[in-house]
User: Fold these one by one.
Assistant:
Number 1:
Amino acid sequence: MCRLFGLTSAPRRTHATFWLLDAPDSLREQSHRDPDGTGLGWFDADGTPRVRKEPVAAYQDCRFATEAKQVRSTTFLAHVRYASTGGLETGNTHPFEQEGRLFAHNGVIEGLDELDARLGPDLARVRGRTDSERFFALVTREIAAHGGDVTAGITGAARWIARSLPVFALNLILTTRDELWALRYPDTQELHVLRRSPGGHHGCRHLDHSGAAGRMRVHSRDLAGAPAVAVASERMDDNPHWRALAPGELLHVAPDLTVTARLALPDAPAHPLTLDDLRPEAAASQRAA
C-alpha cells in the first residue's frame, strides 16, 4: 500500500536524511509489485515549499528511489506511491503543493466526475489525474471558505466526500512551514503518531525510523537533542509511545509541537468501499505489504 510519513520539529529546523525505498534486493526480486512513485516535500527557511518527486517504477530505475535525500526543514512530508488512479507521471506523484501547503494521501475515492463538478473552477488547481490531488483541491477551497482555517477546511472537504462519494480511505498528511495535520478515515487503513522527546524513548538516540516492509527510512542526528512529532502509515521503530489514530480522528501539531486531536468524522462513509469493490490496480495499491 502507499506509505505516508510526516515529521515536524518546529520551531527548530533540523537536518534529515530520507531513503524512500530502502530494500534494493527485495525490489529486484519483486519488481512488478514495486512502488510507482516516490516523493519528498520540505520548506526553505523563508517558508518556500520544495518537492522532489519521481514517477519511478523501481523495476525500471530504482536509483532515484534508493539514493539518500538530505534536506533541512521544520516539517517534512514523504510518500511512496502505489498507483490506484492516474499513470506513472510526475503530475500524479505525491506530495502535491497548493497555496504553500504540501499534501499526501493514501486511499481511494471514486465518483470523480461528481468531485470534478463540486470543484468547478477549482479543478484548475489539479495538474494530474489522481483522486488525491482532487481531494487536496477541495481541501484548499474549503480552507479559503473558512478564512484560512486548515482544520475546518480538511473537515469540510472530508465530510462532503464521506457523505457524497464512494470511499475506501481518506488518510492524509498536510504540512505547512511549521504545522502538520493528519487524518485517518475510516478504519480501512492505519495511521500512527509518535510524540518523540529529545533522544527518543531512551533519551540519547538520534532519530532512525525504518518501515517494516523496507519501503522508507528516515534518519536525523539533530533529533538526538530536540523533540519532534512523527506521523506514519506504520510504527517505524520500537518506541512504545506510537499511537494509532482512531477512525475519523484529525490530528494537528502546532508550531510549538503542541498536539491536539478531535473526532472530525464520527460517522461511517455513506458509500463505503471494500477491497473487493475496487478495480484490481486500486485494490493492489491498498493491500498491506
Number 2:
Amino acid sequence: MSGDHLLSIRNLKVRFRVYEGVAAAVDGVDFFVEKGETLGLVGESGCGKSVTAMSILRLLASPPAELEGEIEFQGKNLLELPQDELRKIRGGAISMIFQEPMTSLNPLLTIGEQIAEAIVLHQGLSRQEAWDRAVEMLARVQIPSPEARAKDYPHKLSGGMRQRAMIAMALSCNPNLLLADEPTTALDVTIQAQIMDLMERLREEIGASIILITHNLGLIAEMARTVVVMYAGKVVEEAPVRELFSEPLHPYTQGLLGSVPVIGRKFKMEKKRLQEIPGIVPSIFEMPRGCRFHPRCHRMMDICRLEEPPMVEMGQRRRVLCWLWA
C-alpha cells in the first residue's frame, strides 16, 4: 500500500440478518483515500454510501450487521481493533457529520457541552478551554450569538443550526479524516458555501482528508478530487472528477449526470426533457443476476443478464464495472 493512503477499504461486505432474510447492503467495496484528498461518494438512496461510511467507524450494531473485509486506517485494521482503541479514534482522528443531526445530538446536553466533551476527550484541554473552543467553533460555522447558542439544548435550534452544530463538533478536534454524510442537506445555498469553504480550509490547514457523501453533483464537481460511484452495494465507477464529468464510462454514471439540469444549457422550443434512469433500485434482498444495473440499462447486452461484470482498470484511478469495457 502506498504511504500516501490514509484509508484503504478492501472487499468490504456488510450484511444484515433480519426477519425478511439476509440483506447485502454493501458487497465487495474497494477504494482508498489519500492524505489531504477529498473523495466524493455518490449514488442513489439505498446504494450503500452511508452504510460504508458507518462501517469505517463500526457504528453498525452487530447483530444484525455482519462486516467482512479490511478497513485500514493509519496502518491499523479498524474492523479488528478492540472497542477501547476504537473509541480513541472516533471523534478524534476520524469524525463524522451525520445526515440527521436531531437523532445524532444528545437531547439532555447543551450544544456547548457536547462539543466540549469531545475536545476534552481527544485534545486533553481543561473544561474551560474546551468550552471556549466550542464557542469558537460555533462562531466559525456562522451560528449567530455563539456564546448563547452554546448554552441551548438541541431542540431549541432550527434544523439548519443543528446541522451546523454537528459540523462544528466534527471539526473541533482537527480530524485526519472527515466523513461528511450529506453535510449541507438542511442548509440554504449561502450557508452551504460557507460550510464547504470551512471544510476546504480544514483540509488545507491540517492536511485532513474528506469523504463527501452527497446527492449534490455540483458539490462533488467543486470539492472532490476523485469520485466513487456506487450502485446497489457495489462500486460501478471510479475516476478523477474532471474525467468523470467530461467522459463518464458506466451507463449508470451517464444517467446520473444526464438527469442534472445545467445552467446555460440550450433547450429547443419543443421543451427537451432531462434524461432519466428508468425503473428503480433493486431490493437488497433480491439482486438481479449478472450486472445489477442491467434491468435499467439502455445499453444492456445478453451477457449482462447472465454474468457479473469484471472491474476494468482504465488508467490512474480510473476503473469501471461494466461489460462494455471488458
Number 3:
Amino acid sequence: MARVIGVDSSTQSCKVVVRDAESGVLLASGRASHPAGSEVDPQHWWDALQQALAQAGGLADVAAVSIGGQQHGMVALDDAGRVIRPALLWNDTRSAAAATDLVDEIGAENYVARTGVVPVASFTATKLRWLRDAEPENAARVAAVALPHDWLTWRLRGYGPAGESQLGPVLSELVTDRSDASGTAYWSPATDDYDRDLLVRALGHDAVLPRVLGAFESVPGPGFIVGPGAGDNAAAALGLDARPGDVAISLGTSGTVFAATTTRIGDPTGIVAGFADATGGFLPLVCTLNAARVLDAVAGLLGVDHEELGRLALQAGPGADGAVLVPYFEGERTPNLPDATATLSGLTLGNTTRANLARAAIEGMLCGLAAGLDAIRGLGVQTSRILLIGGAAANPAVQAIAGQVFDLPVQVPAPGEYVADGAARQAAWVLTGNRPDWSVELVGSPEPDPRPEILADYRRAAGRY
C-alpha cells in the first residue's frame, strides 16, 4: 500500500492529507496555522509544514509528495538562497499602481496575447515592479523569484540557505508547475515558457525562475519523489476530479468560478484570468470579493445564524418578491468596481420582510457568481455542470436557490480539503503514471428549477453601477 501526501499551504494555514495511492482512502491528516497579514516571512510556512507533517505521521514510508499553495505570492531570494524580505501575498494591494503602470506600458491586449492575463495587484509581476520602485536595494539583490509552493517544494527536497539545509542554495533546483506559473504575468501558456522581457520589465533585471515541470513529471526528494505541485485553484479542480465541461464555484470569503477546459483562454478585459490547470489543460477563472461574508452581514443584521438565515430564505419565493441585493459590500473585483458599495433595492411596505431579506442575500451572492460564469462562457468555454464547494455550499437554502439561479445542473461535493486532496491526487499520478480514479462523494444535487427572472432582476439592479 503506497502512501502519498498532498499539502495545501494556504493564506491561513497548512493542511496535510495522507492517502492510499491506489484507493484514495484518507490515512492521516495534519494542520498548522499561518500568521495573518498580506506579507509573511516564508519561514512561517516551512515551520507550519513541519508541524502539519508531524501531526500526519511524518514522511516515513511515503512514496510521493505534492504541494498545492496560494497563488501569486512573491518570494525573492538572494544568490545564497536567503529570503530577502517578507513575501508579498496575493491579497497585498500596494502593487495596484504598479499593475496599472505595466498595463499602460505593454497594453492589455498584448499582455493577454503573451501571458493569458491582464496584470492586477495580486499577480507576481506587479509585486516585482513595486519592489523595483519602492525598495530598489532589495530588488537589486534578487537572484531568484519563487512562488510559495515552489519555495516549499525546494525546501522539502533539502535545498535552502547554507547552514539551514542539507543540499544548500542550488537555485537551479527550484521547480514549479504550469498552473502557478500562469499566475505570475510573465509566463506564456502559448509557448509553455517564461516571457523574460516581461520579467525584466517588472523587476528591472533577469533572475532565476523555477523550472516548469510537466503535469506528470517528478523530481527526487529525500526518500520519496516530489510532484510539480499546483496553485490552489488548480489543485482544488484536480481534487474534485474536474473534467472539461465542469465548473467549480467556491463560496468562501471571496467567490471563485473556474472551468476545466482544453482550450487556451485570453480575455483583454481582464475579467477572466486565463490560467493553466494541473493536468495540461486550462482553468479560466473569475474571482469576486463578495461571497460568504454577504451571508455573514445579513445574518448579523437579522440577528440569526447561517442555519436560520437559510430557513428564513426558503420561506420566501424566488425573486424575494422584488427585493434585490447587489452585494458589493467590499467593493468588487468582478466587475472591477473597487469603490462600489452594496445596494438593496425594490423594497416596498409589503415585501420588506425578514424572509425576503434573507432570500435576497443568498440570491445576490449567487447572482454575482453567475455573472462570472457568464463571462467565462462568453469566451467560448463549454460547460455542462456546476460543482458547488466552500463553507456556504453546505447550507440547504444555498443549494436550493443555486438550482434556480444557475441554468446548469448543480452538484454539491462533500466538504473536504480539496486543494490538499488535489495535491495528493497529483502525487499518486506521478507515482503510478495514471490519473487516480478516486471517487468524489456528493452530498447534494438540488432539483434544477431555472428561474431566469432572478438573474434578470439582478442584472437590472447591478446595471445601475
